[in-house]
Amino acid sequence: MANKDLVARLTDINKRIGYIPRGEVEKLAKELCLPAAKVFGAATFYSLFSTRPRGAHVVRFCQDAPCHVAGGRAVLDAIRTTLGLEPGQTSPDGRWTFEMTSCIGVCGVGPVIMVDDDVFGNVNPERVREILKNKN
Amino acid sequence: MPTLRSHILISGDPVSLARGAEAIKGAVESELAYYALTDEVAVALSGNLRLAPEQLPAAVIYPDDVTYGPITLNDVPLIVSEHLYKGRIVDALQITTKPLTGAIVRVPAREGALFAQQRVVLARAGIINPESIEDYVAHDGYAALGHALTRMTPAQVVQEITDAGLQGRGGAGFPVGKKLNLVAKAPGEEKFVLCNADESEPGTFKDRLIIEGDPHSVLEGMLLAGYAIGARVGYIYIRGEYHLARERLEQAIRQARAMGLLGEGIFATDFTFDIHVHSGAGAYICGEESALIESFEGKRGEPRIRPPFPTTVGVWGRPTAVNNVESLANLPPIVKNGASWYRSIGTAKCPGTKVYTMLGDVNVTGLIEVPMGTTLRTVIEVYGGGMKQGKPFKLAQTGGSAGAIIDASFLDVPMDFAELAARGGGLGSGALLIAGPDTCVVDLAHVLLRFFASESCGKCVPCRIGTTRAKEILARLADARATLDDIHQLERIANNMQAAAFCGLGQAAAVPILTGLRFFRNEFVAHAEQHCLAGVCPMRGEPPAAKRRFGRKELATAA
Lengths: 136, 559
Description:
The complex is a heterodimer of chains A (about 140) and B (about 550).
Chain A: H1 6-17, H2 22-32, H3 36-45, E1 57-62, H4 65-83, E2 96-101, E3 113-115, E4 118-120, H5 125-135
Parallel strand pairs in A: 1-2
Antiparallel strand pairs in A: 1-3, 3-4
Helix pairs in contact in A: 1-2, 2-3, 4-5
Chain B: E1 6-10, H1 14-18, H2 21-34, E2 41-45, E3 59-62, E4 66-68, H3 76-85, E5 96-97, E6 105-106, H4 133-138, H5 143-151, H6 154-164, H7 176-185, E7 192-197, H8 206-213, H9 215-229, E8 233-238, H10 243-258, E9 274-279, H11 289-296, E10 320-324, H12 325-337, H13 339-343, E11 353-360, E12 366-371, H14 376-383, E13 395-398, E14 404-406, H15 417-422, E15 431-435, H16 441-455, H17 461-478, H18 484-500, H19 504-528, H20 552-557
Parallel strand pairs in B: 1-2, 7-8, 7-10, 8-9, 11-15
Antiparallel strand pairs in B: 1-3, 3-4, 5-6, 11-12, 13-14, 13-15
């Protein structure tokens, strides 16, 4: 049982609302004639989707080996302390969500962070603080 | 249509982008508008221009073949007014180099300042405007397709690719000709070409740069594969994070359709073919071909039982040729120049070139394309500009996270699929992570297994539980909470994953553990004795009091 548009439709919802709420899952399931469990299964499988509300800005830190070797540990600590968040958390005021991500394919300039759709390469703790401050 | 008299390409590699290449492009456009040159000069963000990092961002102006770099926003008015408006080359901003004679010469853009590479796949990247199909055609683009459609039968195309000995460039190295032959021979009217552009292997970004630098080469490769197997439709599954690459592909497809290179009756033959792009939504596992097909069909990206292989039961149950971007981009040059030409490049067992991404402790990181059989030492010393801060070489991981961790004994091995595999390594997707003595093998393995544990799809037990348990043991080792017994356990888990995991992900997750243990066992043992030789791991834990079932000597010799 499948519908080839399912992932594309979920992408649209995720982009429009910022995450995929329960109600949308059920609505989409009805529309595509799929069990809601199938739709929810796909919504929770892919890392670009979220089933929980996210902050106004999503900060993603690449946790993979090339960035790690290039000094990622210090950058991770800088994001943690600047935002006061652990990976996976959203700030209570709804401004920030901090997530870990897999490789985003710009390893030539690691360590790399992504703020919303913007990718920042060659970052160090000072640049992280600067980037996050500019978003505020 | 206005006639363009000049093209200006701005380097669009990651280094340049990080230094504001897009702002420079915007400034060039507004300066051109000021001089009313918008209709005469085309501006494009290109891929890698083969320049050293200190020369970036750079701009190349054609047809004059002049390279300026490194340039800033402040240089833009001068370049536009002097070069493009008045026609005078700005000598002060030109890139120059000192060859062996000591004389200072300017760098012809078509050659670049870096040590010469042999480029097949990236022959046009950085030279043409990737957003122009005319540029592609002017550089022999679609010539191979015309040749194949008018002078070759589909079987001859398959034979040519088989004779060329091209191996899949996604990592596994499966012969491309054999795969196309299987799909061509598979029963069924409807067949598909599926381009795997779900490049998620950490450290690998070659496919992105091939697409961004020369999108039509991928389309032409798909057309050739489609003709060879008798398909009418091709799909490109591209990872959701690659926005620019997707835009470039979609634009290239629109251009090809407008020129009649996609659609019905291509080159006035009865060959009909069209291509559609499909975006992923973030999942490493979808690079595995059967998981990719599942995801493409709109489901969770979990791998299928094989056999049947996608060559007989693929997209919607139809025979499907799933090929990596780089493999497909190799097809036009093979068809155009012939199998014997292709075999003259690279090694006897693995002909052709390989696109590598260089990372880690080298002075120059980024993309290179060199013949198969180039040694790691050459890559580091010639293309990588040596180790950072003159550090000694300690280890390399070839092929991304799923790759083997190899030591200095591999430096002079001619790198290709066969040679590395014979020595217990692997070429994989072509990522070369190079590290000096301040990298700890246990810490590296821990980061890698954290990745696999989070990316495991959870379908099979050896991978779902194995990656997590291996990650936990490595975390204990890095925190001085492990015993020698844990190392033995780690090795058992890795062997079991390699033998019993359902798909390549779980099997590959074992590779860095097993190769790390093979070449750097002493470091693992040292961690079990509460020392991190590289001084990287936190080692905060209390030493455990667990009974040692294995002596150190015994572990050191166990394979």
